[in-house]
Specification:
The structure is a single chain. The chain contains 26 helices and five strands. The protein has about 625 residues and is an all-alpha fold. It has two domains: about 5-165, Oligopeptidase f, N-terminal domain (Butyryl-CoA Dehydrogenase, subunit A, domain 3, Up-down Bundle), CATH 1.20.140; about 245-310 and about 410-615, Oligoendopeptidase f, C-terminal domain (Neurolysin, domain 3), CATH 1.10.1370.20. It is globular, with a radius of gyration of 26 Å. Its EC number is 3.4.24.-. Its cofactor is Zn(2+). Belongs to the peptidase M3B family.
Length: about 625
Amino acid sequence: MSTVPHRDDIPRKDQWDLGSLYRSEEEWEKDLQILSSLEEQVHTYPGTLSESADTLLAWLHLQTRIEELDERLGYYAMLRHSEDAGKSENQDRLSRYTQITSRLGAATSFFAPEIQQIPDATMEELLADPRLDEYRISLNRVLRYKPHTLAPGEERILAMQQEANQTASRSFSALLDVDLDFGEVDTPEGPRTLTQSSFGSLLEHRDRAVRERAFRQFYRSFDQHKNTLAALYAGSVNLDIYRARVRNFSSALESRLFPDDVPSRVYENLLSVVRQNLPLLHRYYRLRTRALRLEDPAVWDTRVALVPDITVHNPYEEAVETVLASLAPLGEDYVTTLRGGLLGGWVDRYENKGKRSGAFSAGSYRGDPYILLNYKEDTLRDMFTLTHEAGHSMHSWYSVRNNPFQHYQYTIFEAEVASTFNEQLLVHHLLGQDQFPGQDQIPGQKQDRPMRAYLISKHVDDIVATLFRQTMFAEYEKLVHEQVESGKALTVDWFRQAYRKLLQAYYGDTLTIPDLLDLEGLRIPHFYRAFYVYKYATGISAAITLSRKVLEGGPGEREAYFRFLRSGGSRFPLESLAAAGVDMTRPEPVQLAMDHFSRQLDLLEEALFGEPHGEQK
């Protein structure tokens, strides 16, 4: 029986080397004291920023010093805590850092409101000083909020509401994570406790009766609390609209798109193009029905793998080489840099007691772009996780080297593009046959038919989950907020009817949609962070488009992709993607992703059934 090792039992070569942040604890402690001491200087600046360019410049230098030191200290403390949260010294380090930065955050919070209150003419005079050029981008990003910033007294009132504003989301989390008891589900392996986490894995069970039992039992619990769930979500939606109106936005959607400077037509294009291509999704469900040999397919059959897990053996070092081979189209410099990082100290590779679950990339300005994994060599998905996180880290690596600290950080909108791009190249490489029509063979690994079916099926399922499903969620959020903005009420019945119409549109007439599934719209945690999920769908669309450009193009297309990686936070997301040749204000990138999905269905059908491309009539 395998056991999870303690941190001290993990070989050093398999741990990350945080020396690029701090070579010793003493260095970290010294910088923490310096950061704490800077608070005294902060208190001399409120009310002075409009006096002269000299004063404003001095403040901006101090602010940058604080933020850069804060980031370096914070990343080190967070990474140490992530590698083993059970160690008291890791808990203590993170706690002391948080206490100091909380005080500093309160002390420096005067900056944005004070800048926004400076008269336009005065601000123009200050910005005319060439010494402020290095801060021009970051200052303009603060100033663009001026039309949506209230008077100091009103801002103070809004700030005092922050704790109360968390009531709906916190209550929702408490209900789902603590109070709801879903019971146990009988399986051939024995009873399994049904939780938010185990629900997904139970829907992947090979025994169809287990899947149905888990589904019905899970949603019966939500049915018992539907009025509370509806009230909580309605409260969150009303809060979104209140905030938007108070800050002079025309809608909650506009207010949420504003920080990334994304016009509403990007959102509308996504919904429209996906709607037009729903017949492809319906074809996918028919293909699943045939592959699973089901006579009466239902929603609880949509998660089980079409191809059972295939046993693989991919030691970490071999997985790295496979990933690097897939990324060869990006050139020698990219591959060489990444090899040095993946094998030389960027990655904390394996599970140990107290280590954070899952995976992440943590790039900072003064340290290497570290990666946390819990790698397992018998799980093919972990190799995809490796290249996904490597995409984030290389994005950070290029951004740091091409931007000052003030605007090197890219947005979530952009982050998922670089990581998903790497996944596209990996699946392309592993299949050993081009994914694009009009081309036959490419260099890569030729797979046997079961492995081909497994890889294509995984790729197709990822597109369904990321592009189609997240767009359905995005459409629902829009409908819900528009219901309130038009002066109408949100009720349990309205929520369920609106969501059922979407289910019917997206699932088509192939699958049975159980009555209780229309409660799904009340159980999605992301809805308490309104208009966020669309970024997953636009991200994969942009990644597919860019990967095709790089694979089908030449040095010019590759260089365009590197312009995107190097942009960092110097441009808004749509500008950085446009520099790479992807215009997300137009429908073409989403449609190209749909065309790619159609091609994958052809290949999947061939791999599963040995038939020519195209749906069997």
